[in-house]
Specification:
Layout (H helix, E strand, L loop, with lengths): L4 E5 L11 E8 L2 H8 L2 H5 L2 E4 L5 E2 L4 E8 L4 E6 L3 E7 L4 H10 L17 H5 L2 E2 L2 E2 L4 E8 L5 E5 L20 E11 L12 H7 L7 H15 L7 E2 L8 E3 H10 L6 E2 L4 E3 L2 H7 L6 E2 L2 E3 L7 E3 L5 H19 L8 E2 L1
Parallel strand pairs: 2-5, 3-5, 4-20
Antiparallel strand pairs: 1-2, 6-7, 7-12, 8-9, 10-11, 10-12, 13-19, 14-16, 15-16, 17-18, 18-19
């Protein structure tokens, strides 16, 4: 029996710590419970929000509908040999707990994705990535429920249409598909060690690591993230608020004429990824505080709630940042955070 609650404050369910009231609220721990919910008049007649860890969204007002909190748990081995292993992970598992679990078992592939907030179910939707690695590199398949028919569907990696913070689940299947599990292909030996992105090499040197392991890379990434990103349990935030923009090589070269120090990561198709944090910092936003909200002092990519800010104020601040970056660099930033 699914318990439906009314007028639930979502402050404890979003990492910005925003007060937002859900008209209706329920928890789902199995696919059968979800199918049962799909048959109810409440589900059919109300606006629906599927909620994982609440680490990638901003509530700008109360939610006049039904919030479905995902609490499916489980990590199971699907297949393995001497070289590799496939594991099926339920969508309600905490992402970083999964990374720690894999490292403890010496399974490689997720170490660069340490300390990313949120749940496993949100990972393929967003195609999460960090420090030179994206989830799409290890996803074997994604399974879930068609929210219209109630049928189970399976998507192989190539069917997920993964892109930079993009997937079929975020666009074509948005609000039409529920991710219930993700199957990952990981290595048991001959791990791919990626230390080329960001400050990983420098941090490993500080740790006196000469031969990086899965654990040491994870530890380095955790150190870097803790230095740059505030802990949402102490300072409300959703991590990186904006995507790093990808611009043409010609556009990047024109920026270099204005500032030769502009950072950029080149790709094979004559495009360049420019750090959004650098652009925001150049516009003077880093560390700026407006009443009870502001931009983090250590990382300009992070908007923070100092305790009593509201979602509309954060949204308006984000729009001001977008406007100033566009005016100075002719680049339009896109929020990575889902705005509700």
């Amino acid at each position: 029996m699914i318990k439906i609650e009314e007028n639930v404050n979502l402050k404890d369910y979003n990492t910005f710590g925003i007060d937002s009231i859900a008209h209706y609220f329920c928890r789902i721990s199995t696919e059968d419970e979800l199918r049962a919910l799909l048959q109810t008049d409440l589900y059919k007649n109300e606006k629906i929000l599927i909620l994982g860890g609440g680490s990638n969204l901003l509530f700008t007002k109360d939610f006049n509908g039904l919030v479905v909190k995902v609490e499916m748990k489980g990590i199971d081995i699907v297949d393995e040999n001497d070289e590799s292993i496939s594991i099926k992970v339920m969508s309600g598992e905490i992402w970083h707990d999964l990374v720690v679990h894999c490292i403890n078992h010496e399974w490689g592939g997720l170490q660069n994705l340490s300390l990313i907030p949120g749940t496993v179910g949100a990972a393929p939707i967003q195609n999460i990535g960090a420090y030179g690695v994206e989830l799409k590199e290890v996803v074997k398949e994604v399974t879930g429920i068609d929210l219209i028919s109630g049928e189970e569907k399976l998507f192989q990696n190539h069917e997920c249409h993964f892109g930079y913070r993009q997937s079929i689940f975020k666009h074509q299947l948005k609000e039409k598909f529920f991710v219930s599990s993700v199957t990952l292909s990981l290595t048991k030996k001959n791990h791919i060690i990626n230390t080329s992105y960001g400050a990983i090499k420098e941090t490993l040197n500080e740790m006196h690591v000469t031969e990086p392991s899965l654990k040491s890379i994870s530890d380095a990434v955790i150190q870097i993230r803790k230095r740059k990103l505030p802990d949402p349990t102490h300072l409300g935030n959703a991590g990186s608020f904006f995507k790093n923009p990808i611009i043409s090589l010609m556009h990047y070269q024109s920026l270099q004429k204005i500032d030769p120090q502009v950072p950029g990561y080149h790709s094979v198709n004559q495009e360049v990824k420019v750090p959004a944090g650098w652009l925001i910092e150049q516009c003077g936003w880093k560390g700026k505080r407006l009443n009870d909200i502001g931009i983090h002092t250590q990382q300009a990519l992070v908007i923070v709630n100092y305790g009593h800010g509201n979602g509309q104020e954060i949204f308006e601040l984000a729009m001001q940042i977008i406007s100033s970056v566009k005016e100075k660099f002719y680049i339009t930033l896109t929020p990575e955070v889902n705005i509700i």
